[in-house]
Amino acid sequence: MERPNSRERMLNALENAGACYVPCNIMLLRPDLQRKWGGQFGAIEKQLDLGLDPKIEIPELPFRFHPDVTVKVWKEKTESGPVLHQEFDTPGGKIKRIVNQTEDWPYSDSVPFLDDWLTPRCRKFLVEEEQDLEAFKYLLLEPTREDIIAFREQAKEYKRFGAERGLLISGGWTRYITNKGLLNSVAGTMGADILFWICGVEQAIMMAIDAPKTLEELLKIVAIWNRKRMEIYLDEEIDLMVWRGYYESTDVWSPTIYRDFMLPILKEGVEITHQAGAKFAYIMTSGILPLVNYLLEAEIDALIGIDPAQGRGNDVLLLKQTLGNKICLWGGVNRALTIEMGVEEDVRKEVEKSFSILAPGGGFILSPIDGVGDIGPPVWDNLLTMIDSWKKMNEEIGAKIKC
Q: What is the rounded distance in angstroms from the CA atom of residue 21 to the CA atom of residue 250?
């Protein structure tokens, strides 16, 4: 009997089967590491050499503003330091943000549209009240015909590469450098994550409490834009749709706000993904436990982000007891404390503990959360230790249940 290839092993895990084999997938490779390994294709070849189960991530669609939108950026000096003004003049009016240009600001005198660097540095966010919505909707337009044609050509190349190597194909969120050397650090299929960059944390929370209709309308604008992009990804017959929900957890929102605002949008995303015959993976690395019933209700296939060390509210055993056999659990090893700062014994213990809790019955993919940043010491040695431990644990599983 022919052995399953990597794609088949990953699908088995995503279907909560595959008790004989736990795949190992490094969900995220930092840009510096990818450049050392030659972009996505080179990084995948390197992972295959190590015996891992990488997935091909088709490229993301570009962001597009309405053609009548103009953007102005200028710099001003203040007593507290330089600030950057970014103004969008749209058919629906003008909106602007003001950002502190701190010493570590990586974008020179420019301002990205969406980026984590914005959130702690904004003095004024793009959307702060209901009257900003009319202008904001002109900043989230569906891709152009030219965008889609270029995307399809790239996707064809990526899928061919993956099919030749028997790899899972994913879409909707990528952290791989494209074959053009570009990396969009915060894009992806999403719902409320976008609020952090356009409203800020405090204002988004207060909007949910004081202006729920405004928040509902804002998320509706995002959901319409997001769905159009998802449909284009799903037309490529991908195996897995990945939705980023880093900022949708109870580290930020109450379960009630999550239920009322985030859950309906998530359920719609899962529904259209399943209608297209693909699996749905949700990224959330902390504050998960209070939401388990909602994740079950949404019928997601995989939860990426099972962090055993830094994930607040991530009791691994409870997650397995409540979600196991229903949702594939993806993670099990902490990146920052274990892979980047730990010693060999720490790594082996964490892999063994994760296997003992998460592997029984299948539905587990081992991964460092949140990815791997570099290959210098001790990271590279610890990564090799993790891989060695993973292989040994798989051998033990195979011997125990006679696979």
A: 32
Strands 81-90, 70-78: pairing is antiparallel
Domain positions in the chain: 6-63+145-194+227-400, 70-139
> What span, in angstroms and rounded, lies between the C-alpha atoms of 316 and 307?
8
Return the C-alpha torsion angle 217, 223, 228, 229, nearest 10: 130
Count of H-run helices and E-run strands, the chain:
14, 12
Q: Is the peptide bond before 378 cis (omega within 30 degrees of 0)?
A: yes
pLDDT at residue 188, rounded to an integer? 84
389: pLDDT strictly greater than 70? yes
pTM summary value: 0.94
Which class would CATH give 6-63+145-194+227-400?
A: alpha beta
Residue 135, CA distances (Å) to 126, 217, 281 in order = 10, 13, 32
Q: Which helix (H) or strand (E) holds 332?
A: strand 328-334
d(CA 310, CA 10): 25
Confidence band of 84 (pLDDT split at 50, 70, 90):
very high
Closest CA to 52 of 371, 378, 374: 371
347 phi/psi in degrees, rounded to 5: -65, -50
2-16, 134-148, 388-402: range with lowest mean pLDDT: 388-402
Residue 293 φ/ψ, nearest 5 degrees: -65, -35
